[in-house]
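COURSE: Structural Biology Practicum
ASSIGNMENT: Worksheet 4, Part C
STUDENT ID: 0417
INSTRUCTIONS: Below are two proteins. For each, the amino acid sequence is given first, followed by its structure token string. Answer the questions at the end about the second protein only.

PROTEIN I
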Amino acid sequence: MRIASFDIETTDLKANMGIILCASFHEIVPPGYYSNHHDTLNKPYTIKLKIEDPFDPNPDKELVIAIRDEVEKYNGIVTWNGKMFDVPFLNARLMFHGERPVRVQFHIDAMYYAGGISNRIGSRRLISVQQFLGIGHDEGKTPLTWDTWKSAMRGSPKAMKDVVKHCEMDVLVLTRAYWALLPYIANIHR
């Protein structure tokens, strides 16, 4: 069974005003099962927006199709608030472009296991869970300024590189959080 941590970065919280800038994936593999001779952690990878026309208000059609197809290569995805944001936002952008929705086989939204009846960490925010679990700054969430986001929306290669790094760090933290929260997951749903 193939499982990956999955995260998107967008220009807005609503799909009628925003587009997707990128999506990162990190295949979750138990330690000792990496496909390299050093048993080193596999790296995240990202599919990102290519802005060809800076005046196109909806340049993400090819990107959202590629993200959908990549998600469907996995038997399951692990997200943080992905049931309420990432997947619905992706589906809304797919609908806007006249494409079919993503077909997720299994979806673990790890955020729900950081609070409620599973744990009382104090906050369900991924940065809080990162701090609680002691995940270091070299492998943790990266802050971005509003100007970086705005520059990435306009096609700045440097800003997009920063957004991609931010997204990739999110999936690395998410993978670590998944392993810590896995004992609390009794059922996996769509």
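PROTEIN II
(use this one for the questions)
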Amino acid sequence: MRSAPSVSYPVGRSRFCVLVTVALCGAGVAMLALWAWLGPSPGVRQAVAAVVLLACGGFAWQGVRRQPIGTLAWDGERWRWGEADPARGVPDARAGQDAQEVQVALVADLQRVMLLRLQGTRVARAPATWIWVEQGVDTEDWQAVRRAVYFRAGRHAQSHSHDGAAAANQ
């Protein structure tokens, strides 16, 4: 199997993630309002639900604001992630000198948006970084990024199937 082409892709704050967060918070507010309107007179239960909804919305919004911004680069052999300064916004398409090698796992593919989990290779117990990669950021390199993600996933699955077959033959 040939390698996927090298590509660097800028990763910014995800509009998709913002829309999903706003939609879920809006649905929560609508359900709470419906419960207060159709149920018995508003009381302690509705007040507690409102506080919980407000807290969950606050945590969700903090998660949206703290989305990693950087450059994801595939060199044909390995992935690199270079984090950018959040104040700058979306980074340019060049991976920085301080980029670290990562393993990339595809979590969700929605065709124009992918959720990826990045795990550093240097520190085994380091927490994973979750990023939303969107087509709208760099439409020219979108297909190259998708090919690289799927190439790596297919290669990883092949190595595990070969390891399993070798173990079964012994």
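ANSWER KEY EXCERPT:
Q1: Residues 7-13+69-169 form one domain.
Q2: The first helix runs from residue 15 to 38.
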